[in-house]
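Researcher: Here's my situation. A collaborator sent me these components and asked whether they could plausibly form a single complex. I don't have experimental data yet, so a predicted model of the whole assembly would be a useful starting point for our discussion.
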Amino acid sequence: MNLTKIDGGVTAAAGFEAAGCEAGIKYQGRTDMAMIYCRVPCAAAGTFTSNVVKAAPVLYDRHIVTDIGKAQAIVINAGIANACTGRAGYEICEKTAEAAAAILSEVHADRAPVSADQVLVCSTGVIGMPIPLDRIVAGTGKLARLTRADGGSEAAAAIMTTDTKKKEESFRFVLSDGTEAHIGGMCKGSGMIHPNMCTMLSFITTDAAIDQSLLQEALREDIKTTYNRVSVDGDTSTNDTCLVLASGLAGNKTITEKDEDYRLFCEALHAVNEGLARKMAADGEGATMLFEAHVIHADTAAHAGILARSVISSNLTKAAMYGHDANWGRILCALGYAGVDFDPEKVDLTLVSAAGTLPIVKDGVAEAYSEEKATLILSEAEVTVICDMKMGDAEGRAWGCDLTYDYVKINGDYRS
Amino acid sequence: MNLTKIDGGVTAAAGFEAAGCEAGIKYQGRTDMAMIYCRVPCAAAGTFTSNVVKAAPVLYDRHIVTDIGKAQAIVINAGIANACTGRAGYEICEKTAEAAAAILSEVHADRAPVSADQVLVCSTGVIGMPIPLDRIVAGTGKLARLTRADGGSEAAAAIMTTDTKKKEESFRFVLSDGTEAHIGGMCKGSGMIHPNMCTMLSFITTDAAIDQSLLQEALREDIKTTYNRVSVDGDTSTNDTCLVLASGLAGNKTITEKDEDYRLFCEALHAVNEGLARKMAADGEGATMLFEAHVIHADTAAHAGILARSVISSNLTKAAMYGHDANWGRILCALGYAGVDFDPEKVDLTLVSAAGTLPIVKDGVAEAYSEEKATLILSEAEVTVICDMKMGDAEGRAWGCDLTYDYVKINGDYRS
């Protein structure tokens, strides 16, 4: 394995700094804004929500990624999503980017000035509420002075909403010429999580040198089997955004074609994205466990993914997981309505967790298994159901969580 | 209006009898089997689940409706779904039908014998468990002796699972030659409710005389805007079934083409189906309210339906309804990921219930509305959100319910 897990999150790669601060956007007594800054302009790639209702920062960042393709900083706020805010919401993005560019240029007067059209802006939180312009500009100013090469964790904490845990991943990997490169990321996401095109908010940084168009393609492909395989509640957000910045400071020969280095880079990108995706599922609103569906021997990888995602999205299955009940009929049922054809009388189901492995269905009907053992397996923090379709050689995974009283409490009692 | 609401449910139409009994299939101390019987063979139509995993009775009834097109009795059990039970499950259906035909022929020896291939069989309950043959045959025998012309309500009670209320609807209507006809129905459904092709279990009877092929077509069209517009939890069942029996005993000239009488019949069928669909949504597992989405000024009726269904299916919106929170951002978000294009900056949202009418969003952004008034409106037992898309003249409705602690309790704590 060419990948070594390291610390650092979004500041693991060379050239990147980050920080979090209290800006009082909506939350009080906690950090709620973060900034990622790179000392050089980076190749920037991004994917965004497929929701017809797109938040202002999604429209703003899509323009930068598509038309500029470069970025040097990302400003993020939690608490207010800046969605359904009309023209005024878009102007908040513009003014935030202008403030960031001005102050970063002033603070780092020894370097080339930061261009306002190379600052990305992201928001997460309540839909419809306006972001106070004075507070977000003041927060941006503070952050520009605070970014540090070891600030990744601080930034990861500041972007949380109903998340209960920071979510970071980072790896070192070696390119074909022996260059050591780094890639790391952070994300947030707990409710309104059923990404389509991308996850809630996810930020990846790398020092590998890679062409912007290849970076975009690598990202676009990878989200299909990572973030797009996560569901907490079936609701695709208005703000889903995944951004990748590549600084090139590792010093490798720039990746410009789909060669061995591209493959190595994609492998590293996938490791970060899959790690973050799993963490997001495990920290779903109210969740007590990570629930993975692993579909094997499907006819195509796309079908395997659709089947796996249907299982982890089923409310009834998720409620059964919460009850540690091996209600396999609900799993078979969810496979059945996924929209993919298969022979139900061939399907095998097996439960796997740290507590053991238990075949529960063989050829579509129940095995004589022990309910006690099943409950024991389902009581672990991470549970996988293996669905053997016996059709071909393709496989796919998806990640979700259980459906709990706390999910209802979080979303029924409070305007989150 | 040509429709008059009457009592009677599935026994409102001439020729039909029904009964419920305690058969001890799985539940104890309550009725759990029902029978509908008609003194003459009826034209029989049906629609069934689109789930790839189809319960044995679905496969069995589909054969009868498609290949025979006539039926004289329906035997229904609650508690065990007879799904994922393989060949043995199908044999249970055959033996139940044989038993029903034999005993009904014996009890009604003055009439022509009931043919075993004119007995439909339906099941609802836990997936995967086998139905005890002796109990279902004994129950069938009891029911054949118990059916009465006023037994509709008794039957409606016996088919309940986690339902908290019987669901019946019936109407009298007048055909063009002055003939008085009747149509009535009952259904059950509370969890695993996200019908696709049809609802959980729904049974309609009418004395109107109508060709089987027209009856099938009328049903197939009508479920699109009734049962297929209901969602409790997004899970499409393995057992969804809707059956219609038409005895012809009203004495009208048989409806054989799409004339005025066909239109009148379709109107009556729709009234029964919509009434039952709404009752099913209102009695969703754990529900405290009926939540209706009414999409107006959409470009097409199909799009209106897709948008409406997306809103009532959103877990986040459903949780907000439970909290009586006018979290309109979640409603706009759910419209946005429905898969239909529209301009989010044109959408108006209005809340309506017995407590009043309140515009909350105008052209995609919040109105200055009173949160107190919104909470008052959302505290009623039936709430509608009107979504004005300002695109065209089409409209559509869908029905759901709130997402509550009790939904999680019902589905997490017990194998239901």
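Model: Some features of this prediction you could bring to your collaborator: The first helix of chain A runs from residue 56 to 68. Chain A touches chain B through 65 residues (CB under 8 Å).
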